[in-house]
Amino acid sequence: MISGATNKSIDIVRGRLIPGSYLMENFKSLTANQNLGLAMFNSFRNAIVITILTLLICSIAGYGFEIYHDKGKDLLMSILLLAMMLPFVALMIPLFTMFSKIGLVNSWMALVLPSISTPFMIMLFRQASRSFPVDIIEASRLEGMSEIAIFFRMYIPVMKSTYGAAMTVTFMNAWNNYLWPKVILQNNESITMPMLVANLKSGYSVDYGMLMLGVLICTLPTAVIFFCLQKSFSNGLTGAVK
Amino acid sequence: MQPKRKKMSLQKRHNLIGWAFLIPASLLIFIFCFYPMVQAILLSFKKGMGAAGVWNGIGNYTRILKDKTFRQCLFNTVFYFIIQVPIMLLLALILAQLLNNKDLKFKGLFRTMIFLPCATSLVSYSMIFKSLFAGDGFVNAILTHIGMQPVDWFQNAWAARFVIIIALIWRWTGYNMVFYLSGLQNIDSSIYEAARIDGANGIQQFFKMTIPLLKPTILLTAIMSTSGTLQLFDESVNLTAGGPGKSTMTLAHYIFNISFVETPKFNYAAALSVFILVCVAILSAIQMKVGDSRD
Amino acid sequence: MRRKLVSAILAATVVGSMIAAVPVAAESNDETLTVWCWDPNFNIYAMKQAEAAYQKDHPDFKLDIQENVYSDIETKLITAATSGDYSTLPDIFLMQDYSYHKDVTSFPDVFTDLTDSGIDFSSFSAGKLADSTVDGKNYGVPFDNGATIMAIRSDIVEEAGLTTDDFKDITWSQFMELAKTVKEKTGTPMLTTSGGSELVLEMLQSAGASPIVDGEVKIADNEVLAQAVEVYATLVKEGYMTEYTDWDQYIASMNNGDAAGVINGCWIMSSIQAAEDQSGNWTIVNMPALDDVEGATNYANCGGASWAVSSNCENTDLAFDFLKSTFAADVDLYDDLLVNAGAIASYLPAAESSVYQEASDFYGGQKVYADIVDFASQVPAFDCGAYYSDIRSALTDVVTNVVQNDADITSELQNAQDTVEFNIEG
User: Does B125 touch chain C (CB under 8 A)?
Assistant: First the structure.
């Protein structure tokens, strides 16, 4: 793939695997054909905002589900899980109709709102909270900290590794999401990187050099974010706090 | 008397705060998932769309029983599920255990390489697999080299299903590994130290400690993979286009086709989706029953 | 303190982007039309040129061209139609010809009837026009030509002691003989295909037959169809044609010389021409005809698209006039599209222009464009009705099972008939 980005289209079709000298040409034709900067900006903006909101909303819910667990909350968790079991294809039209009724089609709210609370993320934090030491909470309560303060000041720093994993995955999913943004956002102005890559492949004759470069640029951010965050998976702080 | 009453009300307060913490997330899910979901379920009992829809009872469901394509797709989907999910989860666990080793060098690089497949865009992922398994591709070159017959990977039904399973494992193992890795961090490393001092070897540590301690995370990934595999769509569409014929097509791909590619039958598509929902719900309920105990 | 600062910055980012993302109302410029299409080198280029041409007389006119992959255009149309919210549709969109009947029948409210728009539909080739005509009403302005061609490598054929002329105006049985010679002398298969049922459907069309007879699906007991499937299976089994299920490998097989030729819609030429070092080695002829079928011809059609006007178009007069003065009148525009985008017109007067008479070096000095327009004019009209996609998918199964599993053609066709009938009744 990387060497593909440096080769001429016809060489790639013929299976050339060694790096070539067409990187700049491919980049030029890519930026001439597609609004690369805009797609990058949109993708980053969508993914960052969705990731921040998701982590906040889902982690506090997962915390609530586990730390204050009772029968009622366990039941609600099971019900929430149902939400991810219906194929999205079947949800898409009713969801579109709903946004159309409240006049939010083509709005950015319609893109973000359905994406920021997922049973998956809630459950991730719920399951991870099981290993969160209850002593810390008890001790903080004795010190007179409010419940919300315990969450922000005690829980979040301790659960760094879970947040790292959740952030990577949420960012990746938000970054790669294709169908819903495509359907709900109607303008060229809202193009994202996956849409740009899809456009590159849609013509009657495909420029493979340009395509490979587009794919490469589209993959880089997630890879970089993973590389940076994976360190947080290797030194969890649970022990340190104890 | 006084202190006891205060404690009771404190627990009640905590309970309420707990609910308050769940409300934003739950509310969003109810509005943006359950409302459309109810619409889809209603649709599955009707004939025709919107205002023109009339009640059709279980007509769309009895139709499922007569649908040969559905049977083929169900078989494919269940096959992927049974073969792929256990292999992938076990592999992810082993990798997580290995890459959690404190003394391993370049583990950041290894982790990134294993994670990278699920971060790559679908386009490049499918292109890589198609060329690897092409008639004169890399895999066949190896097969010929070790004296075996080359295989028409995408023209033979079983070979094509095999390619899909390999592709799925390649793509999603690293994804699951991330959760195991992060789960492992929340386990006190002193437990492992103690085990090592007691003379437990790597395999014993894996089965006696890693798996039990990661149980909550394993349950999570098991449910997610079940749900994901039964709704499998990308691989079927992009790698094989369901072919040869419909021998690798998944249920979700079939649902998409009857909604957006062939002459649209939304009511029937909704009924098929509800079928998937019920299947996943039953499987998840079993998994929850087995795995979600707080002991 | 530091943590507070961080959370403050995060909060500001979130709020900031929420505000920044307030939907921008579309410009309500009366002279602007929104267009959906998908290929920057082809139909998007065409729209840009048409815009420039129309701006000469209408300086305030503007197009807002939005690039959408075709399958997404259809998904968006269907989503809009089923939710009853047409406000998201563009004014004009390009639609693949094979989808017209299905979508006009299923979602009539998406389209604007163009019959009385003042566009002169008689100047388009009849076979092409039929695709976008439903119940006698016109729903599309034909754009690119999809006439079926057989492109062959003259150098490989000559190596086998044959000439490209041997392949002109022949039947499939004659083709088999020639392919046998090429295979024996050079070891190269005569054809490459991306699998599926396209070629079978093209054979069917070339014989003036159809899987729909009097509005009824007729896949089983359709002798012409059975013969077409048999020809296809023989080609693969004898090694005269190699199947590549993957489109990229299919293209590579042409560019690499793994096959001596290809049968497809004439739009495949842009992929062939990507191999610049093969210039002069290609020739275009018509496809072989089915043997012993009355009215069998050497001509068919595969692919191509037409411009549709959506029901969301407020300024239909402008849209009509724009299409009328460009894609249904402007020969200069088509000349430019041929030279710069390789788009071969289905607008008949365009073919009389001198540009179409020019010889092409890539095809060894052949006047390919004039030849293709000539092919297009002889294509028998073909109506697959609203169930074309279902039929195509069922026939793909037939072809796969017959070729891969040696299944019996008659019983496979019966299965396909059952599948399509099952789909229709639902």
Answer: no
- The answer to whether the CB of A6 falls within 8 A of the CB of C251 is no
Looking only at the bridges linking them, the beta strands covering C261-265 and C148-153 are antiparallel
Residue A18 counted as domain residue: no
Q: What is the CATH number of the domain that holds C189?
A: 3.40.190.10
At residue A119, φ and ψ (nearest 5 deg) are -55, -35
Residue C16 within a domain: no
Cα–Cα distance, A32 to C40 (Å, whole number)? 10
Kindly tell me the number of DSSP H helices and DSSP E strands found in chain A: 15, 0
Q: Could you tell me the residue range of the domain that residue A99 belongs to? A: 28-241
Lowest mean pLDDT among A139-148, C3-12, C68-77: C3-12
The DSSP code for A153 is I
- Residue C124's closest CA among C347, C330, C310? C347
What is the tens place of the pLDDT at every residue in C299-324? 998 888 999 999 988 889 999 999 99
pLDDT attached to residue C21: 44
Give the span between the Cα atoms of A64 and C335, in whole angstroms. 68
Give the mutation candidate from C43, C72, C244, C247 for the A interface (greatest A CB count, under 10 A): C72
Q: If you search the block for the tokens 């999401």, which residue do you land on?
A: A177
A85 and B CB contact within 8 Å = yes
Best residue in C3, C4, C17 for a mutation probing chain A (most A CBs within 10 Å): C17
CATH number of the CATH domain containing A61: 1.10.3720.10
CA dihedral sign of residues A115, A118, A121, A126: positive
Q: Can you give the pTM of this predicted structure?
A: 0.85
More reliable by pLDDT, A242 or A127: A127
pLDDT value at C19 more than 50: no
pLDDT tens for each residue of B141-195: 888 888 888 777 887 888 888 888 988 888 888 888 888 888 887 776 777 778 7
